Amino acid sequence: MIRRLTVIIMMFAACIGAVVLPNNSATGRPQIFSAARRLGTPSIHQDEGVITRTWLCAGSAASGPSGDGEYGGEVVLTNPTDAPITGVVTILTSEQDPLRKQIAVEARSQLTVDIGALVTARYASAYVELSDSSASVEQRAIHPAGVAVSPCANSTSSEWYFADGFTAAASEFRILLTNPYLTPAILNIGVSTEKGFRSPQNLDGYVIPPQSMRVLNIADAGFRDEKILAISVTATAGQIVAAKEQHFLGAGRLGYVLALGSPSMSDQWWFADGEKGMGMTETFKIFNPSEEQVSANVLIVGLKDTVAPPATSLTIPAHDVVAFNTAALVGMPEGLHGAVITSQSGANLVVERILTRPAATSVVTSVVLGGQKGTRSLRWSIPTSTRIALKDALIVLNTSSVDALVTVFSVGPGGEEPVPGLIDIPLAANDIISIDLIDDLALGRALEVVGSQTLMVERRLERTPTLRGRSGSLAIPG
Amino acid sequence: MENEPDLTHLAGDGFEEISQSPTPGVVVALVVRSLSPDLAEVLGALALQDYQNLQILVLLGPGEEEEIGQVKELVGSTAPGAHITELGADLGYALAANSVLRLVDGESGFFLLMHHDVVLDVRAVSQLVNEMQQSNAGVCGPKILDGDNPQILRSVGYAMDWFGQLDDPIEPLEIDQEQHDAVRDVFALSSACLLIRADLFRELGGFEPTIEDDGAALDLCWRSHLSGARVMIVPSAMARQRRRVHAQGSTAERTRMMTVASLTGSLRMLMIVPLLFLATLLGALVSLMRGDGRRAVGLLSSCGSPITRSASILRRRRQARILRRVPEREIVELQVRGSASWRRVVRHGSKQVFAGHSATQGSRERRTLITVGWVTLIIVLFLGGRHLFASGVEPIGQFSRLPDSPRNLISEYFSGWRNQDLGSSSSQPTSMILIALGGIVALAHMGLVHTLLIVGLIPLGWFGASALCAVVANDRARLAGVFAYAAVPIPYVAMATGRHQVLIAYAVVPWALHLLRSFGGIGSSIVDDTVGDVIDHPSSEQRIRLVAKLSLLLAVTLAFSPSTVLVVVMCVVLWQLAAVIGGGSTRAAGLGLAGVLTATVAAVVLNLPWTTRFLQADAWAVIVGVDTHRPSGLGWWDLMRMDTGPSALGGLVLFLYVPLFVATLVAKNSRFVWSIRASVLVTGSLVLASLDAGHHLPFRLPEAGMMLVPVAIGLAIGAAIIVMSFGIDVRGANFGWRQPLAVISLATLSISLLPVLAAGINGRWGQPTTTLAGQIEELLGDQGSGDFRVLVVGDTRLVPAGQHAYGDGLAYSLIQNSQSTVLDQFTPISDDSDQFVKPLIDAIAQGATDRVGRLMAPFGIRYIVVPVLDRVQSTSASPLPVASGLTQSLGAQLDLRSVYSPTSMVIFENTQWIPVTAMLSVSAAQGANAGGTAALVTNDVSGSLAALTGTASWRSVTQEIPAGQLHLGIPFDSRWRLENATRSVVGMASFGSVMTFESGAGSGRLVYDNPVTRYLWVFLQTILWIIVLLALFQPRFLRRRINPTLLEPVVSFEEMS
Hints:
The complex is a heterodimer of chains A (478) and B (1057). Chain A has 478 residues and is mainly beta. Chain A has two helices and 39 strands. Chain B is α+β, with helices and mostly antiparallel strands. In chain B, helix 20 packs parallel to helix 23, helix 21 packs antiparallel against helix 32 and helix 29 crosses helix 30. In chain B, strand 14 and strand 15 form a beta hairpin. The radius of gyration of chain B is 35 Å and the shape is globular. Chain B starts with 24 loop residues before the first strand and ends with a helix. Chain B has 42 helices and 33 strands.
């Protein structure tokens, strides 16, 4: 009987032991094949393991010279490394089969591919596959109303957002949709206006054939004379690249913009440039594409020797867009400033800044999509800088709470060289400086802005050598 | 004296009438195998024979020295003049009796050949001799009565039909009323006792040495007829014999089949052979319907003996031809027309009769219960899987289809090239040749083999449980154990989820434990009052046979499921533990452990060189399977309920734990040891499975379903023990807590059977009608553009075929031409997949390139499939989540085109793919020559044209090919060459990973030069398997023989006369 009891007790003890042990496998964690690639502000990720790195450009008009000027596009590739980089440029249009061109970018140099010289089409977009991850690719859209520089995207996305659209005074607003893949992409396009959100039937199930691009004229789609337009593009099948082309013709805006949309929503949007002054208008279009109402804060930063106005809280209804004019802020001083727009309820905002500045007797409008959370970087690449000496060409915001030193390097045949006069520029915490590019070493070359703290860098480039005013664009972090 | 024979009843009236005339000598050859209780009586009866010219020759088999001494002493005291000859080996009755040919000199007398348990009437010999002389007979036999009840008839000779079936003229338990007392010719006599002329016996060469016991008498009598000698029954000569156990099943049937094939006339054979097979098949069918499965199996297995033993048959026919003095038609006239079996059934529905003994087994009630029980199980099996028997098992999980052709399988097995994954010079899995052999037996009906290899494992497990539960020595209790084993949801969940490994474990582990129990010497009977185990002492031959059986079992198991061997070893270790804490025989358990280790080593050796796969770094993953990601691991409760998959009413299995627990409380003596053994098996396995599920062990164990098989075995033993204990330990004891507990546990046993019935309702054991593998084959099976590969990436529970672990519960596999077979589950030794394909998947995961299609192109990867729903583990109602970023990453590849696909999977087509054998396009050739990843990603490699499609290492395809570069999408291997026109072209590395051949215009074919070592390995492996088979069957020519020089004549007829 003792043996019997002993055995039973031993077995019960073993069972209880096994029961009370925690289950190490019960993590509830889903399987992860690939960490989600952060879709956001284009950046340079240097990675030794990269076999090819693809850059997808926004697309541009490619019809060439016409009576009112030239319509074209260029892809600018920058190789900051000490070895040549090879690759392939593929040009997509709506009319032709894809065209591929093998390229090689010599060490520490740039290569410009003229899209118009390769294809004849109304619009064309390109994607570039390179053998090295250190290179950067930008697009220059050439338009009679100016040149617009825009970094190319790191990846496609199944959703794209545009916070600002404008069709007032017959202004043109087009969405350039590029599908680089071998499978058709099917899109649903929603439009938010002052009157509310609409999802027109003709923009539901919009198909982008494989390896082609389509241009969607928003005004022609039933949204004429709208001062507030925000677009959501959602791919139900496939992934695309979406960009917008805006040609402002009145109602307070003039100029030309061609820029990528935002491939994702974010809870933080950073802007380095911004200015209050005579004849200037600065508006932030804050778009909430989500299904929930969002509370947003607008905080002005980088004010020199002035107490910044308190953060302004805004409520953005679902699928709605709110225009926030900084001039309306009480106590807002004149001069340069940056801004941070944050969401109180997660990643659900897209913010663009529309800045209209006087240019001679007229005005010029620039539209810049902010940098998302995580965009701040110690190093910023400027593949396309100015070819002529420019004052205030670069606007640098110190996003940290520590003072920083900033140096501008020029990338040339000799490698990275600091630009005379632009070495170790002191930059106070949360402060902004504007940098003049006047030294020959800085002109017509790729530049690198390197700080001792995290920075945001925006460019104010010339529209064309002959046109007055500036275009705006973010530099490329990384 | 206790053993003093009572011979008074045998003394007839003529006891004093001893003939004084010269009489022929009679030498009694009494074959004694052991010291039996009847031996004294047998010898005494011989000593009292009224026939004077009689010499007794005791032919003594092997035994302990003490036992032999006792036999000699008994012979000396009972029959003082008897000669004793020690044969030194257990030769069997026939061979032992044949030794009289050497031990007796001369021919002018008779041999009386007797079993050791036949008690003769005092006048039996004289009656036999008289009749022999008067009738001029060659062979005579006495009327044999029952040893326990001399009023019952046992044998009065037999008739025989054309098919060797004996027709006994007496009814079962027929009373002797002298109704059969006429002297008459018969076709055959019982081997128990027969008198034969010495010269005839010499001419016939004695009994046929390859036949044991009863069948030998039929053969001897038949040959006597051929030589013209009469065979007669002499009822006035009487003998008694206790009931003996006779050859059953396949042995008796095989003997009969071979005797007919050996002794029937040549011309007549043309008619008899087809009829014989037909009658045998019909007999098997009838036996099956009567619930006598063992006889059915025996009949069916005997069908192959004329082929497998053709050499023996030819030899016997040659000998019979020399003897033949009587025309065949006269022999046929002696035989019964029609079927003796049928006549017997019509006459009295009796059981099989062979050489004079009704094979009645136990009481009619018990047999009925057993028959009903097994018939119920078989019906449940057939009804539960009725659609599977009609349409075949669906290729879900590990139930991949078998290759179509056994011939191709054999060719591939002999080839040194393994086609799986990317292909490599590698050893082939032994399972390949085993499947091929199965295919040959099934006449190339591979679907049938597939179904049997899967569904057949369930009844195999039941039979194994029956064999293991035989320890209870009570058919009812044994049946309860089998029902308990059949009631667990393990096999039905495995059927529903495609877990072949679990089914194999379910089938094999009980058999392995049964063999190990026998090897260890743990007795099969526990109806006793002995504390601790009942210990048997198997002979060395038996132990060798048991180890050989176990080695073969584990070798075949290892070829299909290495982890099952691990489970067997684990069970034996637990038994060792049980012996220590439960008071069982630690020696027996230790012997069992030694046996399993020996058999495991033998199994590994028998599977060489394939088992060298286990020397690789990923050996453990190969054995226990790829790690499965489970967000919520199986808990203790799930494991106890065996909830490893869909099973209706699965919770009811908990009732099976009640009998086991109660058995531990109420069982006594050896039954207690067995209940402890079962409990330790259950507890230990559950604890280990739980620790494994909770990731508490430093290594992984086989999947939960396999770990639960020992639990099921423990529950089965528990059920058997409680039924047995109820009859022995409970019913006979004073009323107390034991009685109600035992009654409750018996009641719970019946409740737990309900899930089996529920699982079988849909007729497919829960298998879906549409499967992932089937859809892949259907959608992507077009080979019109050349041979290709499909890369499947996803959750380990969904990826078919041979999985390569990819971490975080993910796996990938490569399928040739979208058709996966069961052989794909055995990954080759080569790590080419990990070397070449895994980095490409890494590249997708890490976003290292958007041109992975070009990188995959040289390997012929045309499709990439992400499984989503397999309708088993992942259903539309409860889908498994697709790994984060998987389809998005693939969708971001510029070379991959999304293909319209069902909801069960996401398919991408690689537009850059190059057929596995193809003439490269110009741009692809440039990439091939440049080599390296950089060159490959920048070149468009599409546009290559398929050539020599269908090429395999064992099958060359000849085709006209143009000048250019012939691509072969396998890692570089110098054994491949191109025979182009009249020249032989060696391969070159291309794309940095695969091969090309510079071809000229003309005919071309790819040839693989098989390494000689492969043939040597196959030869060696064949030898090893034959050695184990010889150890198992221990054929006569290997057994210890009597050295003829040692057998000198001890008796002479001349001297006797």
